[in-house]
Every structure is written in structure tokens, then in C-alpha cells.
Amino acid sequence: MRTHEAGALHAEALDVRHAPSWLSVPADVNALHADLWAANVRRDEEGALTVGGVDVHEIATQYGTPAYVVDEADFRARCRAFREGFAGADVSYAGKAFLCLATAQWVAEEGLGLDVCTGGELVVALRAGFPAERISFHGNNKSINEIERALSAGVGRFIVDSDEEIDRLGSAAARHGVRAHVLVRVTVGVEAHTHEYIATAHEDQKFGFSLADGDAADAVRRILDQPSLELVGLHSHIGSQIFDATAFEVSARRIVGLHAAVRDEHGLELPELGLGGGFGIAYTSQDDPAAPDQLGEQLRQIVADECASRGVAVPRLAVEPGRAIAGPSVLTLYEVGTVKPVRLDGGGRRTYVAVDGGMSDNIRPALYGASYSCTLASRSSSAPPMLVRVVGKHCEAGDIVVPDEFLPADVSPGDLLAVPGTGAYCRSMSSNYNHVPRPPVVAVRDGVARVVVRRETEEDLLRLDLP
């Protein structure tokens, strides 16, 4: 059992034998770890959290809990940081992280492109007025209807993923009398150091054309045989929540090798090279993400070096940050309902703090074993820190929001908790499990809060049911 400077007085609250090794007892349980929170999150004089100058009490009173609260200025600033950090490259926001009309408009206004991977995401982008020529269409199983809609809208890029898609897209483009710009998604055989479900460039998974088996080279030939398709580049995506640039280096080396082979076989210098996204963020104090300008410098240098070694012209680089923009810009606000100490086998106890949301608004801990942090948001406290597990209200033992965190020992029903870093994949992957309506998305900027996605109601849940 680790000790704490407060001594034996706090031993009951500070039973930390079941805490993960990286989680240390905080000297100040009210302090905010700056790397985890949006830029405009503060504590006011009374100790309550504010976002963009708006008190969380006001947000909870006006919009209810749970609620996703997005710092609009922070979201926009992260868009600009990637645009500037990757100057000379094409930066597109990966809409799958979180997409609504407002975020699509923010991304457009900040000068980024947009990646979509379904017809639904495309509809949101078009309804938001996003310029179609700045949209790239991903996805491993695009339907004919989705392809037709994208061609009609004038989508700028298709990232093709299968032989069937090449044929579908070629036929559809011919019918529309257009020449579609395509990139080949290449599986480069890189094992990214991340969860197996979000590692996407190893051989045994559904995405892309294998480089090792020659499938990618065959796809290039197939596209070049289609008069209605114009091959403009190669694309690779190695996974998500990645901090190590080494994986990108290996990926770039292999995909530039194919780039050179295309030139040698077909006399074609492809103008574009996509290295995907997957840049990680800080969910807990153990995470140490790189800044966009550092990432930009590293990836540009990696591609330049590989092209020099192959004697090919450097193509225009393209990247797709999603999580790194949306993730840190959002917190989820919950209300505590119950606090339950539980004795554990082998000694010690764990305190379960149950909130009014859970796996329906954040499935990632249950799906990926993802870790999050949280803080007491409605007030500050002088109570000693207590190791807790924050859980949801759903009928699943795995309904865990924050596996391990220190909160004040006087946390009580009615308190507000805030979980940072919930902008990516939380609302996007949310559900109505147990018939729980999905929370609203509340955007805050310059002291003004507004709903950009309204809360679902029970009537919404019943609207699709037929007697």
C-alpha cells in the first residue's frame, strides 16, 4: 500500500492498493491537469468549473445532464494548429470522430477538408454547406447509392478499398460523365502500438489492399484501365491513438516504395500521398501527445527522406486528424446519483460513484478498455482524495465511465462530475441502450452557450416504433 504525505489520518480514504501504477495521489484533488482539458476550462472563485466563461451549474440547469459540452474556441484553435503545423499539406478533419452541422461549418471556416465514410456523414456535410470538392469519401463497403450521391455532389476524392468498389465507382462515374479522383488505400503491414480494434494497417483486417501480396499494385493497374477514374495518389492509415512516429516512418517507407514502383511501371508520378491520422490525445496523465507542429515537421521530413532515397518527387502530403481536434475540446457533464463503497476480495475497498449516463454516451471504456479522467465540477473540496470508479446507470457490470480516479472523499449525490476528452467517438458511437435518450451537445464560446445537437426525448425513442 502506497503512503501519502497526509499520513494515517487519511488511510481509510486513501486505500490505493488497487489503483493502477501510473495514477498518483494528487497533492490537490481540485487541480486540473491542463493537458486533459480544453483551453477555456477553469475553476471560478467558488471552485465550480467553467467552460468558455459559462458555469457548469448554468449548463446543467438549462440543458440537463448528461451533456456533451464543447469549447468551440478550442475546437477551432486545434483546426488552425493542424493547418499551420502541416503547412503545405492537405489537412482534413476525420468526421467519424464527431460530426454535426456546427462542427462541419467550423471545419470549413477554419480552412480544412473533411473526411466522411458513409452516406449519412456525407449528408451532414452537404447540409452544412461544406464545399464538396474538399470532401474525401472513405469506407470499405460504399454502396452504389452512396457512390452515386457523392458523384452527384461533386466529392473531391474517393479512397478506394476493394476491386468491387473500383468497378462500381468506374461505372458510376462513366454514367455521370465525370472522371472521379481516387486514391488507393494500401495495407502496409505496420502493427501500430494501440488496441487491436483501432489498429488498421496490419494484414489481417478488413481495410485496404495488401502491399505484401501485390494487391495494391493490381488495384493501381485496375484503376488505370478505367477511363472514368483518375488515380491521384496512395493512402495509408495505421490506426488510432498513436504517439510513436516510428510507425509512420515504416508506413511512409513502404508506401513511397509503391509510389516509386507506380512511376517505374506506368511512368506516372502520383501527386498525392495520404498518411491518415490517428494522432493521440491525453486521456489521462500517463498520455503524452505530440503537438501538431512537431508532428508536421516529423512527417514531412520522413516523406522527404524516403522520396529522396527512391529518387521520386515529393508528393503533396495529406493527413486526417479527427480525435486530436475534437477529443480534447469536449467534456461530458454528469450528475452523481449514488456513492457506494464495496469491500474487495483480498482486502481493501473500492468506492463506486454512479452517474446519470454511462456506456450509452461513452462506449469506449467497455469496447476498447479506454481510460478517462474526471473531476468534481460543481465545487471545490477540502476533503482528502479518495480512489473511486465512476460507473453509469446501465444494466451491465462493464458500464464503466472512468475506471480509476481520485475524487474528494465527500463526493455526494447531486454533485456534478466532468469527464474531459470526450469529443471523439463518444457522441458518434452513442446508443439508446436501455432506452436512454442521447445527451445534447452544447457549444460554449465567449460566455454564451447554445445547443448544436438537441437532447433526445422519450418521444424520439418511440417515433420509429410501430404498434
Overview of the molecule:
Mean pLDDT is about 90; it is low at about 1-10 and about 195-200. This protein has about 475 residues and is α/β, with parallel strands linked by helices. It has helices at about 55-65, 70-85, 100-110, 120-125, 145-155, 165-175, 215-225, 245-265, 290-310, 325, 365-370, 460-465; strands at about 40-45, 50, 55, 65-70, 90-95, 115, 135, 155-160, 180-185, 210, 230-235, 270-275, 315-320, 330-345, 350-355, 375, 385-390, 400-410, 415-420, 440-445, 450-455. The longest helix is centred in the middle third of the chain and has 22 residues, at about 245-265. The radius of gyration is 24 Å and the shape is globular. The chain has 2 domains: about 5-70 and about 330-460, Lyase, Ornithine Decarboxylase, Chain A, domain 1 (Beta Barrel); about 140-320, Alanine racemase (TIM Barrel), CATH 3.20.20.10. Helix content is about 30%, strand content about 25%. The strands form 3 sheets. Strands 4, 14, 15, 16, 17, 18, 19, 20 and 21 form a 9-stranded mixed sheet that branches.
Number of helices: 12
CATH topological fold name of the largest domain: Lyase, Ornithine Decarboxylase, Chain A, domain 1
Q: Write down the overall geometry.
A: globular
CATH superfamily of the largest domain: Lyase, Ornithine Decarboxylase, Chain A, domain 1
Question: What keywords describe this structure?
Answer:
Lyase, Ornithine Decarboxylase, Chain A, domain 1, TIM Barrel, nine-stranded mixed sheet, eight-stranded parallel beta barrel, 12 helices, 23% strand, globular, disordered N terminus
